[in-house]
Each structure stands twice: as structure tokens, then as C-alpha cells.
Write a structure and sequence with these properties.
The chain is mostly beta strands. It has a domain at 33-124. The chain is built from one helix and 27 strands. It has one helix at 15-20; strands at 10-12, 37-40, 49-52, 55-58, 63-66, 72-73, 76-77, 81-85, 94-98, 103-108, 118-124, 132-134, 143-148, 154-159, 169-174, 184-186, 195-198, 201-203, 216-218, 225-230, 239-243, 248-257, 263-275, 277-283, 292-297, 301-304, 314-318. A four-stranded mixed sheet has the order 1-27-25-24. Strands 2-3-4-5 form a four-stranded antiparallel sheet, with no helix packed on it. The longest helix is centred in the N-terminal third of the chain and has 6 residues, at 15-20. It is globular.
């Protein structure tokens, strides 16, 4: 995936949304830094800073401060995912990072927030854009979920050891549906435990996530990325939204109960006018109490290999509107 600037054009979906919610673009850095960008209060001053590539950008002056070295080649950078989290409990926001190669590591934020941060190994995943952070075992600590295997054919989760300087403990979730896109977390069956979503379906979280392979359920989303789990139609069960990273399309899958008593899924189109939608985030953008969707398109994200790759870069949000039990 190729990108060129951190902050891009903003579009608003829906006439009422345009009247109520306005955005103003601020260019933080016109140069390409990395495919990943994270938001966190790095220096503990109460303001949200930005992390991208080799630098973190302190609010409000946004001056770049280098904290690591990132290899680059042919318009790409060796950072696929960044997850800010306080891993060592010192009150400072550290950074979990996934490289284009198999290595995952976390970087320790020093007390003065200066210089290069020390890196500690987590383990090996597969070159991916889809490592997800969440608490799988309910201990209040961050875990990682992502693809594993030579061809990313399986899914695993990694738990931090008591000694954070050591590699993390890896447990296989299942042997289906790894892939470089499409892994997510959400409580699909409302049992209070986070399930793991993949492009082909979802793994039901057992009481003990460290057991053998988790039960697998079919839900074929095709080549989609970053699923968001939410009850979009307000009928009491969880639905799924996901974006198409290599084509046009943003969709949601409505959950219902089939004649056999098992979950049944119906796909609905949200928008098919924008291509290469990668990261998808659920958030209440307009403050009306429900979850809207935020996503964006990069310019030539995969050179010329995808439909619409030369079309303009966009940052877009979609307002959720309901009519009874219809989204």
C-alpha cells in the first residue's frame, strides 16, 4: 500500500451531516512517512499527538521528533501497524508496531520522550496490515491478534509475558482465514467475550482462549478489511461492516436468525463509489448516540493495480440513520 501525505481531503456524507459537522484540514507533514498513523498522548500533556514513520508529532506545534529508524523502498516503509498502549504500566504511552517482514515489537516510551525508543521483541506474524489489539483473556491487558504461518493461512493471538522484555506467548485461534486483510474483534454472539473475525467467517471465543482451535462459523465477506461489529439496525443482534481494500465498496452484513435457528447474514451496500478503503473505524461522529463509520482512500495505494487507484484521496464518514429496525 502506497501513501503520500498524512492528512488528506475530508468529505461529508449526507446533507444533514454537512450542516451539523464540519472539518478543517491541517497538513501536518507533506512528505510520505509510513502506511500506519497512530494517535496518542505521547508526552502526557493532555493533548493528542500523532505517530507516523520515524517521527512523533507533538501537539500543537506538530514539530517532528524522531524516535526510531524506519527502512523505506519504492514508495513503501517498513511499518504496517502501530498500536499505542502503556505496556509496562509506567503511565507513558508505548507503541506496538508490526513490520512488513514477520517481526512484531514494542517500543518503550522513555521518561523524557526524547531520542530513540528501546525496542523489545513480541514474536513473528506474517506481513500484514491487519494485526488487531484487544483484551482476549479478560485480564485487563492488551493482547494482539493477527495472521500467522508462511502464507498467513492461520490466525493466532499473542499475550504479553510478565517480563515485557521477553517474546510474547503465542496461541493458535484457528487454521482458517488468516490473510493479510480482514481480521477484527467483536462480540458477535453477545456472550461477553470478544470473538475473532476473518474474511471467511468468525471464531467464537471460548471461556478459556488458550484452549485448542476455537469454534468456527461461516460468514464470507470476500476481500474486505477491518470489520466493525455493531448493531447497525437496532434489532438487538450484532451486525458487521467492512471495506474493500482493492476495489470499490463499503458494505454491512445484517445478522438475523435462520430457519434452522442459527445466525443468517444478508449483505447490504453502503457505498460503491470509492475504492481502496482500508482502515474502517466505528465512532459516534455526530454525537447522536449511535456508531457511524469513518474510512478513507489513498491515492494509488497499490500503484495501478486496483480499480480507481488514480482517483483523489478522500477521508469520509458515513452517518448511520435508522428507520425502525432498518439501517
Amino acid at each position: 500500500m502506497r501513501c503520500h501525505i498524512i492528512v488528506l481531503t475530508v468529505c461529508l456524507a449526507g446533507a444533514s451531516a454537512q450542516a451539523e459537522v464540519r472539518f478543517r484540514k491541517h497538513v501536518i507533514d507533506p512528505a510520505f512517512q509510513a502506511e500506519a498513523c497512530a494517535v496518542a498522548d505521547v508526552d502526557g500533556d493532555g493533548r493528542l499527538d500523532l505517530v507516523a514513520g520515524e517521527n512523533w508529532y507533538r501537539a500543537p506545534d506538530w514539530r517532528p521528533r524522531q524516535f526510531r529508524t524506519v527502512a523505506r523502498w519504492d514508495g513503501y516503509a517498513d511499518v504496517r501497524c502501530d498500536h499505542p498502549v502503556d505496556l509496562n504500566g509506567d503511565g507513558r504511552m508505548d507503541l506496538v508496531t508490526v513490520h512488513r517482514g514477520p517481526a512484531m515489537a514494542w517500543l518503550e516510551n522513555p521518561s523524557d520522550h526524547q531520542g530513540h525508543w528501546r525496542a523489545y521483541p513480541i514474536g513473528e506474524s506474517t506481513m500484514t496490515e491487519g494485526v488487531v489489539a484487544g483484551d482476549l483473556d479478560g485480564d485487563g491487558l492488551i493482547d494482539l491478534i493477527g495472521p500467522t504461518g508462511e502464507k498467513a493461512q492461520a490466525v493466532a493471538w499473542w499475550k504479553a509475558p510478565a517480563d515485557r522484555t521477553q517474546p510474547w506467548i503465542k496461541t493458535i485461534v484457528g487454521s482458517r482465514g488468516g490473510g493479510l486483510h480482514g481480521i477484527g474483534l467483536g462480540d458477535l454472539n453477545r456472550d461477553g467475550r470478544p470473538d475473532v473475525l476473518v474474511q471467511q467467517g468468525w471464531y467464537e471465543a471460548p471461556a478459556d482462549p488458550r484452549q485448542g482451535e476455537w469454534p468456527f462459523h461461516e460468514l464470507d465477506r470476500g476481500d474486505t478489511h477491518h470489520p466493525v461489529v455493531y448493531d447497525f439496525d437496532g434489532d438487538g443482534d450484532q451486525d458487521v461492516a467492512a471495506s474493500s481494500p482493492h476495489d470499490y465498496g463499503l458494505y454491512w452484513w445484517e445478522q438475523s436468525t435462520g430457519e434452522d435457528g442459527r445466525p443468517a447474514w444478508t449483505r447490504h451496500t453502503i457505498d460503491e463509489s470509492i475504492s481502496q478503503l482500508h482502515t474502517l473505524v466505528g465512532a459516534d461522529i455526530d454525537g447522536d448516540g449511535d456508531t457511524d463509520l469513518l474510512t478513507g482512500k489513498r491515492y494509488r495505494a497499490h500503484d495501478d493495480r486496483d480499480p480507481g487507484s488514480d482517483e483523489p484521496s478522500l477521508l469520509v464518514w458515513y452517518e448511520l440513520r435508522r428507520d425502525g429496525e432498518r439501517a
